[in-house]
Amino acid sequence: MPLGFDASAADPSDTASRNGDAHLCDLISDIDFSKLVALKPRPIETQRSLDERTLSDLVSPGISPLPPSRHEIGENFSMNWFRSASNTPRSLLDPNPAMIDAWEQLRRSLVYFRDKPIGTIAANDPVEESLNYNQVFVRDFVPSALAFIMNGEPEIAKNFLMKTLRLQAWEKRIDCFTLGEGVMPASFKVLHDPSRTDTMIADFGESAIGRVAPVDSGFWWIILLRAYVKATGDHNLSDDPDCQRGIRLILTLCLSEGFDTFPTLLCADGCCMIDRRMGIYGYPIEIQALFFMALRCAKFLLKPEAGGKEFIERIDKRLHALRYHLRSYFWLDFQQLNNIYRYKTEEYSHTAVNKFNVIPDSIPDWVFDFMPMKGGYFIGNVSPARMDFRWFTIGNCVAILSSLTTPEQATAIMDLIEERWDDLIGEMPLKVTYPALEGHEWKIVTGCDPKNTRWSYHNGGSWPVLLWLLTAACIKTGRPQIARRAIEIAEARLSKDGWPEYYDGKTGRYIGKQARKLQTWSIAGYLVAKMMLEDPSHLGMVSLEEDKKTKPYLTRSNSWTC
Ligand code: GLC
């Protein structure tokens, strides 16, 4: 059965749905609905202590709130709510303290704009200096949005999508230079002033540390829009002319022609989740995988009759080239490592095997030990004479979810995670990159960044938020037990440790030295992972099957003739 997730999946003729309905009936008799009234999402202005919470408060976060009214979100979604509700109450029957705490904290992180919830604050840490953690980050909000959608509360995601679309229309300037029209903000902040209506400020990179524009924001926005439409069946939002224009503006930025000889997207360092200097400039895998996924999602969302046709054609061409390039040149397994190790250099012309003139001596020693006989992964970056062999979790998981990988490659990535469990999962899932840069290399590559010292933060730190991506990739590849093991490890500590942003150390044992507590995406990432494992049909929101209509796969030797 395809792992699709849409309103029609609630059709009573569908077996899974029928089972769900029976399950639902059982559960309905177990739920005290009088308690559920208190569960509607609410602004959390007052932070009550745990002791003050009532029993219904404690029960509430683990179960779905009352279904939103039909006129609010349409009939289709109400069906989905019931489907989702039929799965959720397992946590009610067997209340898990971490889940309960997570829901409570996630609701506390909601940000309101003119009385509507429009996002979640990055971190609610009462102790650490907030810097810009009191803002709504586009990338951080994605797992929050997914959690709320899965819980039958899609309005928040809709409000966010519409609000950020308005922000895209702002003129964006750094000093006297104007950024591309389609750039989406990295983050925004709501300013509450009792004497006037709420206002907003947004950051497109002009305030960010290092002044880098977030290339990933627009991609996450498109990916979230598709997830919302898939889950709710509400095409009205994406069909709206403003929304169509927003998608086209993002595409204009990344499909423009220039001096590029590769289909991958050339980026500045720090333009994505890793938002400070870490040597990912060039063609970082995180951006390339998100680019691929966003192109596929945009193809699903664009209306050909409303100016989308030309873009769909350009998307198809780019996808074809991008898929070939990434599958061939970014892929590394034992066989390929051995090929590179034996590369000849200075080859000229179309017949070159070592096309980018990679010097075998530049292969770092650790790769030879890290590479298992069984398994493989997309490396961090490929450009002339430079291969960044580091492992990056987001890029590899998104590659699986978008079907950028072949099914064999997807399986190999999972094999590698299992084979290198101690390195990548260890005592806290999940390493954002592997391995850490140390000593002289750390100095040169990070510019002596004290936050990115070895095995900390972006430099080999462990980020609980990545659990949701791992879980989705595990489900897609039919390996849910891997996710289950990882979640168990995280579950034992996350809530007790106060939902840190990241952990430090070779195995991720220590709470990160500058990690924020109550980091929202750590909370939401955990919730999404749990809910997805419990109801794998949620996967369809963030996963795309292989496009059967794509042109035949090229081989390296004939690539120059296409
Ligand atoms: C850090 C992360 C970035 C995240 C932000 C807010 O800067 O590197 O990816 O969006 O915090 O949580």
TrEMBL record:
What is known about what this protein does?
Invertase that cleaves sucrose into glucose and fructose.
Q: Which UniProt keywords apply?
A: Carbohydrate metabolism, Glycosidase, Hydrolase
Know the name of this protein? Answer: Alkaline/neutral invertase
Q: Cross-referenced InterPro entries, in alphabetical order?
A: 6-hairpin_glycosidase_sf (IPR008928), 6hp_glycosidase-like_sf (IPR012341), Glyco_hydro_100 (IPR024746)
- Please give the catalytic activity noted in the UniProt record: Hydrolysis of terminal non-reducing beta-D-fructofuranoside residues in beta-D-fructofuranosides
Its signal peptide is none
Q: Which GO terms describe its biological process?
A: sucrose catabolic process
Question: What Pfam families does this protein's entry cite?
Answer: Glyco_hydro_100 (PF12899)
Q: Looking at its record, which EC class is this enzyme?
A: hydrolase
Q: Which GO terms describe its molecular function?
A: endo-alpha-N-acetylgalactosaminidase activity; sucrose alpha-glucosidase activity
Q: Which organism is it from?
A: Selaginella moellendorffii
Protein family according to the UniProt entry:
Belongs to the glycosyl hydrolase 100 family.
- For the keyword Hydrolase, the answer is yes
Q: What is its EC number?
A: 3.2.1.26
Instruction: State the Gene3D superfamilies in the record.
Output: 1.50.10.10
